[in-house]
Each structure stands twice: as C-alpha cells, then as structure tokens.
Sequence to fold (365 residues):
Amino acid sequence: MSKLPDIINLVKKTVQELKPYQAENIQCRIKLDAMENPYPLPESLMKKISEEIGRIKINRYPDPSASRLKSIISAQTDISTDNIIIGNGSDELIQMILTVFGDPSPQSLSGEQGDRVLFPVPTFSMYGIISKSLSLKDEVVPLSEDWEIQLDKFLSEMERVKPKVIFISYPNNPTGNCFNRESILKILKKASGIVVIDEAYYDFSKKTFLPYLKEYKNLIILRTLSKIGMAGLRVGYLMADSEICRELNKVRLPYNSNSVSQEIAGIILENRTEVDRQIASIILERERLMDGLKGIKDIEPFSSETNFILFKTDKNSKEIFDKLLDSGILIRNFGDDIYLKNSLRVTIGAPDENNEFLKTLNKIL
Fold:
C-alpha cells in the first residue's frame, strides 16, 4: 500500500506561513465590530426587492459582466462602463489586481523572490494576506503617531523596493482618517507601478481621487457597497483606465457576480434616497459617539471620516473587549497588533446601540 502524502508538504511555503483573516461570527445583542450599516431597508424597498428576486431564473448563469449594475454605477459616478469592473466584494478585486500585476518569480537584489507590494501600516490586513498568498513580497512603512503617511520614508521605500503595486486605504481602516491629499498625489507622481486607492468608506468621507483617473493611467480606485447596507451581497467595484480593465478581465472568473447580488444591488442603488438618509444618520451618530468617548476617562478616540471610531485605552484592551462582550456588546480588539497596542474599534450603530455601548464602557472603566 502506497504511503499517503503529508498534505502540509504539498502546500506552498508562503501559504503555510499565513495566518487566516479572522472573520468570526460571534452572536450578541449589539454587533458593532464589522462596519455594517445598522439600519434595515424600508419595507417598501424590501417588497420591491422580493418581487424582482422572484423573477430571477436561478437555473441560468448570471450576466457575466454585470451590465445593468455597471450602468447604474456609471450613471452615478460619471465613469464609463468600460472603466468599471464588478467584484465579489472588493477582496476579490484586490486579488485580481495582484494576480495581474504581481509576478512571484523575479528576484530582487537581496536575493528574495517576488514582486513588491507596498502599503502603510496599520491598514486593511487583506493587502498583506493576499500578497503573501500569491507569493509576492509585502513591504510596509509605519504611519506616524497621528496616523499620517510618513512621506519621506514612503518615497524612500518606493525608490528602494520599486513596488509593482501600492495600496492606500482612503479613509484608512482601522485608523479612520484620510491621509494628507498632497502626500498621496506625490506618491502617484513618483510611482512606476500601479497605485490602488481603496475608497471603501467614501460614502462617509465624501473624499475621492476619482477626478485623477484620466491624469494617472496607473491609478485604480476601489469601492464597496458593504458599508452602506449591502454587506450580505458581497459587491465591490473598481474604476480604472480601460487598458487596466481589459487586463484584469483576463483573470476575472466567469460569472463572479451572482444574479441575486447584481439585481438587489441595482435596485438599492436606483432607490438610494433611503440609503443616503441612513448614511447621514450614521455620520451624525459618529460625531455624537466621538463626543461621548472623549468624555470617558482613560480613553483616547481618534478622529474618523468613516463609519467607525478607533480608540486607545490605558488599560488592557482584551479585558475591555471581554467585559463588553459579557454585556452583549461586540466590538473589535486590536490589542495584539504591534501598531495598535491596547486599541479597539467600534462601528457606529443605531442611537440606542451607541447609548448602551457608551454607558457600558463608562461602567467598565
């Protein structure tokens, strides 16, 4: 009888060394950990969605290019459909970008293999996880104490490693701030590779680099519908030069966006008055929650242009996280991150959820 293979030895080394992204499904009364919109859609819109879903022929494949959804996004952004790609969440789009532009085979002067991917830290962890999974080398530059890009260091690192892809989260997750605009423009001007500006929280900041798409052919802008109430649909999209889109479409999996997600996202975007009202409410609640956090001892909240607030505590963040969870309130603990010691992130919830969070946090501290 032949010996069975040791599975771990069949896994490539870069994947063996990876730690998976921890997306835990913890049940609790108040869920403020995942940057979701806390408000449900109105019954009238849900009824319209139910009627349209009933017409979907699920025995047939979806529109492979998501034409209708792209047309709606095109009308709302004034960007041609030739410059838009729909993804199964923005994570899939990040993977596409790195697959197309990152080559794992080139050898650097130091002897290490793999094209370089550069980004400031702390930031969205999937940039690094997907880079490593594709055998690319991730390079990082720590942010300053006030969460800004250290431009001189970043430009120096760009010159040293010559990255094929640069990721900039704008606003940044998990710090919540928009980096200095002039710094990003200088990075764009100096970059010899692709620059991806991830605008996942654009709807809360209203700040964008979209007007620069025509000027910088190497610019890609990412967005998602998850944060504004469609997290369960997994719909992201990118906007870029048509040549970039042509190359990305070569590796985009067939039918990557399912029929149900395409249809529901299209209906919501066509009737987004209610969504816009919810976004405005979240922004107001963000300011109220910020004021509440500033009034709690041993807490330093950081300014945010997103739908969450990062805050640091003088105490053990894991203990605070556990006590909140015991009270039925789930937020995100970043205490183990070397750049975010004793820091936690709370998503902006509905007013009653925010009130209970503040009351419980006050009691704990």
About this structure: The two ends are 63 Å apart (CA to CA). The chain has 14 helices and 13 strands.
